[in-house]
Amino acid sequence: MNASEGYAVFFFPQALEALGDAVKPYLTGQAEGPHIFCKEIDTAGAFTEMTLVGQSPDGHNVELELMVPSSMIRMIVSAHSDGSSFGFGPRPMVKPATPATPPITPVA
Fold it and tell me: Does the global pTM surpass 0.70?
C-alpha cells in the first residue's frame, strides 16, 4: 500500500454549527463540502486528533494538533499519491472493451 499524503475529515452539519467560528480557519474544500485536510489522524478514544500543517503569519511552517469529539465526524477519506486520480471532480469516461470474438448466438 502506498504512503498516505493526508486525510480529508468531513463533519456532520450540526458539528460545524456547534464548533462555530473556532473551526472555520481550518476548513477547506467548499465544493466537496467543508472538511479539514490533515497530515495525520488518530481515531483512538473519544476524541479524534488531527495533525495539520500550516504557515504562521510570518511565513514559518507550523504543525497544529486539533482534537474534536469523534461523534462529530461523518467520514474520513485517505489521499494517496499512486498516480491515480483522487477527489470528487468529474473523471474521464473509460470506453468498455470490445470483445475479441463475436457473441455466440444460440441455436433454436
Answer: no
Q: Are strands 61-69 and 47-55 parallel, antiparallel or unpaired?
A: antiparallel
Domain definitions of the chain by residue range: 4-80
Q: From the first residue on, what is the mean pLDDT of each consecutive set of 10 residues in the chain (108 residues)?
A: 74 94 86 87 94 87 93 90 57 57 55
- How far apart, in whole angstroms, are the C-alpha atoms of residue 75 and residue 33? 11
Centroid of chain to Cα 19: 19
- Contact present, 40 and 63 (Cβ < 8 Å): no
Q: Report d(CA 59, CA 66) in Å as an integer.
A: 20
Element holding 10 (H helix, E strand): strand 4-11
Beta-carbon contacts of 7 under 8 Å, excluding residues fewer than 6 positions away, are: 37, 38, 39, 40, 41, 50, 76, 77, 78, 79
First to last CA, the chain: 51
As a whole number of angstroms, the distance between CA 11 and CA 69 comes to 11
